[in-house]
Design brief:
- It is a single chain.
- By secondary structure, the protein is α+β, with helices and mostly antiparallel strands.
- The chain folds into two domains: about 5-45 and about 70-220, Phosphoenolpyruvate Carboxykinase, domain 1 (3-Layer(aba) Sandwich); about 225-295 and about 375-579, Phosphoenolpyruvate Carboxykinase, domain 3.
- Helix content is about 30%, strand content about 20%.
- It is built from 16 helices and 28 strands.
- Strands 11, 12, 13, 14, 15, 16, 22, 23 and 26 form a nine-stranded mixed beta sheet that branches. Strands 1, 4, 5, 6, 7, 8, 9 and 10 form an eight-stranded mixed beta sheet that branches.
- It is globular, with a radius of gyration of 23 Å.
- The termini are far apart.
Length: about 575
């Protein structure tokens, strides 16, 4: 895209929104310090105490604390291209609706122009973006989350690649006037009426997933809601990408610290905790980059036991959103093992009859502050993938870990992923819903075509990673988790890597390959042989019912569902009948 086009778009946006001034951001420390000072002065940011150096608290409007999926639209010309997984509006109608809300909405405010790069600045797989916003909170967060500023602007000016444009305003934060519109054919995002991260940091879910997934389909790669982690064993590192719905343990797994008995032989390296862009390399393998430069993580539940790496990296240079405060201005959240809340996330005295921190409270922090951050995350080519892992939150049915028979079965496994809803999205919590590849809220086109795109990699790559599914959340009849999780998940990853290296056999079952009884090391755990059997038990009737539910779900996508899925379902059903 020619830079003149960008400049004209900025001018047109200013004419539409009528800001008091326009500032092109350079991404410097001086600029960041000024933005922070501006928010401290107007009260939209609060300083924390000296134990939390350069840390701040932002409080959202109570109506603006999560992604608003019901007001998020994907707007290609053809409704069928958006699919039943997306809300759709005709692009002309969408532009008219949202532009009416943008008109004069920045009066008296500064309009910030943010050039940014998603991915290492010199990577051929990085993508460029330009966000316009009237929110200094967005500017500060985008500086942490992306490679923002002069280097990105230099690449944009060279006109060497497509540029995703995003226009954002908090406007008056009226929930009835809140819309997040995506125009994949124009590489354009328009977001109005929200200041929350997933709605307002347009480089994140909007660009890096919804628009990028559409780009990836055209260009032959994948934009995925996945962590990337390296598992080093005695000097050899294998990389995995893993897709989990929000608040299902993705960040914890990306920053996993091995249990004591494994610490001498294993180390887990964090490449990314949320998004992976996956390409076919010259060697025929799949390679992944993390397009982000920071973490926008869910903080409730983070402590010395669940995620020591995350806890240690957020005690300095961090922006907190919607946490509680102690009396001496330390951040506090449910699951924190020290201190007690004095004021809740709204700034009101905490009375104990409701959570002090919002369940979707967040931290924004630079990736490089993570003790387990991998130097490979800065590499131009990314990292080669040995395995892809899908994981949902299910209290029954799904075993602790299962391996797909082949790529086609693995894609079917990802497409049938289901999980209980969490506080990361508005709506009821605890309802089981289908969340294919953990991409249901983020796929920027018809999900049936997305599954076909995944299957097409069989024709592009010569060495595909193995695919697995895990479920850390299986429960007994009393609702108690059967598996300890957290660092002990390395015991499952150990089996995954052993399978990738062809070092262990597996049990062939109707739903995939399961570990042999002794292949998951449970030494030192409170996991009995009976519990182990329950973790891997296959409920034949439950799976028959699941296949029926899956078929009903697939029917909503009509002729877009790949024919290969029907064959997979029939094979599983037949083997269940005969087992």
């Amino acid at each position: 895209m020619h830079f003149n086009t960008i400049e004209n778009w900025v001018k047109e946006s200013a004419q539409l929104t009528s800001p008091a001034s326009v500032k092109w951001c350079d991404g410097s420390q001086q600029e960041y310090d000024h933005i922070i000072a501006t928010m401290l002065k107007d009260g939209s940011l609060l300083s924390l105490n000296d134990k939390y150096r350069n840390c701040y608290l932002h409080r959202s409007h109570p109506s603006d604390v999560a992604r608003t999926e019901q007001q998020t639209f994907v707007c290609p010309r053809d409704r069928d291209d958006a699919g039943p997984n997306n809300n759709w509006l005709d692009p002309q109608q969408a532009h008219a609706k949202v532009d009416a809300l943008f008109r004069n909405c920045m009066q008296g405010r500064t309009m910030y122009v943010i050039p940014y790069c998603m991915g290492p600045i010199d990577s051929p797989y990085a993508r460029l973006g330009m966000e316009i916003t009237d929110s200094p909170y967005v500017v500060a967060n985008m500086r942490i989350m992306t490679r923002m500023g002069e280097q990105a602007l230099a690449r944009i000016k060279r006109g060497e690649a497509e540029v995703v444009r995003g226009l954002h305003s908090v406007a008056d934060l009226d929930p009835q006037k809140r819309f997040i519109m995506h125009f994949p054919e124009e590489l354009l995002i328009k977001s109005v009426g929200s200041g929350y991260g997933g709605n307002a940091l347009l480089g994140k879910k909007c660009h890096a997933l919804r628009i990028a997934s559409s780009q990836a389909r055209r260009q032959g790669w994948l934009a995925e809601h996945m962590l990337i982690a390296g598992i080093e064993h005695r000097g050899e590192t294998h990389y995995v990408a893993a897709a989990f719905p929000s608040a299902c343990g993705k960040t914890n797994l990306a920053m996993l610290i091995p249990p004591d008995k494994y610490r001498q032989d294993y180390k887990v390296w964090t490449v990314g905790d949320d998004i992976a862009w996956i390409h076919v390399g010259d060697d025929g393998r799949l390679w992944a980059i993390n397009p982000e430069a920071g973490f926008f993580g869910v903080v409730p539940g983070t402590n010395e036991h669940s995620n020591p790496n995350a806890l240690s990296m957020i005690d300095h240079d961090t922006i907190y959103t919607n946490v509680a405060l102690t009396a001496d201005k330390e951040p506090w959240w449910e699951g924190k093992l020290s201190g007690k809340p004095h004021t809740n996330w709204k700034g009101e005295p905490h009375r104990g009859d409701a959570p002090a921190a919002h369940p979707n409270a967040r931290f924004t922090v630079a990736s490089k502050q993570c003790p387990s951050y991998s130097p490979a995350a800065e590499g131009k080519q990314g990292v080669p993938l040995s395995a892809i892992i899908f994981g949902g939150r299910r209290s029954t049915l799904n075993p602790l870990v299962v391996e797909a028979f082949d790529w086609s079965h693995g894609v079917y496994m990802g497409a049938t992923l289901s999980s209980e809803t969490t506080a990361a999205a508005t709506g009821k919590v605890g309802v089981v819903r289908r969340d294919p590849m953990a991409m249901l809220p983020f796929c920027g086109y018809n999900m049936g075509d997305y599954w076909s795109h995944w299957l097409s990699l069989q024709q592009q790559a010569t060495q595909l990673p193995r695919i697995f599914q895990v479920n850390w959340f299986r429960c007994d009849d009393s609702g108690k988790f059967l598996w300890p999780g957290f660092g002990d998940n390395l015991r499952v990853l150990q089996w995954v890597l052993n399978r990738c290296r062809n070092e262990v056999d597996a049990v062939n079952t109707p739903i995939g390959y399961l570990p042999n009884a002794t292949d998951i090391d449970c030494e030192g755990l409170d996991v009995s042989d009976a519990t182990k059997r329950e973790l891997f038990a296959i409920d034949r009737q439950g799976w028959q019912d699941e296949l029926t539910a899956i078929a009903s779900y697939f029917s909503t996508f009509g002729t877009h569902v790949p024919p290969a899925f029907a064959a997979q379902a029939q094979r599983i059903r037949t083997q269940l009948d005969n087992s």
